[in-house]
Inverse folding.
């Protein structure tokens, strides 16, 4: 388990009693890059708080297609697990480790208890809901009102914001995240390169647009 000082660095706004409760009841887990942490239809028995690394959340359609929603980074919680814990529902999303990660797993029975016992946990849950809701609004706006080249630019900017200007994704991985074809992605990336927005490399590219 993490030491209290480590917890305070990653989750700085909690109260002393909550740190003690986390140390007593949470389990520190690890997973390698590519590990599926959460599947649609899965019963949720614990909340997930990211300590190190990055997690991608996807929405799946009826045909098994995936659409990238947002990343979870250190100091953030998976709102889906918080919601499912609270309402005892099943997951409707897919969560996958982007890199090797470590995360805190908190048993479901402490969700309601801590909301009433620790004001800082209550605020943390509310901030998590609000942040994820804002991310979803952005995603819905892109799908509903933008064409594919605008959606691709929005997607790339999110990746650059997350990982820096060098983006290590294949055309097929991008296509999967946007639920479109690799051919469409390749054509639009070539257009971006022609316009001087990106510099293409093998299985990666660099964002150079000012």
């Amino acid at each position: 388990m993490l030491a209290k000082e480590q917890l305070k660095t990653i989750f700085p706004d909690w109260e002393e009693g909550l740190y003690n409760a986390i140390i007593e009841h949470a389990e520190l887990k690890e997973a390698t890059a590519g590990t599926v942490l959460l599947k649609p239809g899965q019963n949720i028995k614990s909340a997930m708080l990211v300590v190190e690394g990055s997690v991608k959340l996807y929405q799946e359609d009826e045909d098994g297609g995936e659409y990238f929603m947002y990343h979870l980074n250190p100091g953030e919680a998976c709102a889906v697990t918080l919601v499912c814990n609270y309402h005892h529902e099943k997951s409707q999303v897919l969560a996958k480790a982007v890199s090797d990660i470590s995360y805190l797993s908190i048993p479901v029975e402490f969700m309601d208890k801590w909301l009433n016992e620790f004001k800082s946990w209550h605020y943390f849950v509310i901030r998590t809901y609000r942040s994820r809701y804002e991310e979803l609004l952005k995603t819905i706006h892109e799908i509903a009102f933008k064409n594919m080249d605008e959606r691709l630019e929005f997607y790339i900017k999110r990746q650059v914001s997350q990982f820096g200007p060098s983006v290590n994704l294949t055309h097929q991985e991008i296509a999967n995240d946007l639920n479109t074809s690799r051919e469409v992605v390749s054509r639009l990336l070539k257009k971006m390169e022609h316009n001087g927005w990106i510099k293409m490399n093998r299985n990666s590219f660099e964002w150079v647009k000012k």
Remarks:
- The first strand starts at residue 27 and ends at 31.
- The helical segments are 4-10, 16-25, 79-87, 110-117, 119-145, 148-163, 171-178, 182-194.
- The radius of gyration is 19 Å.
- The chain has two domains: 4-143, 147-207.
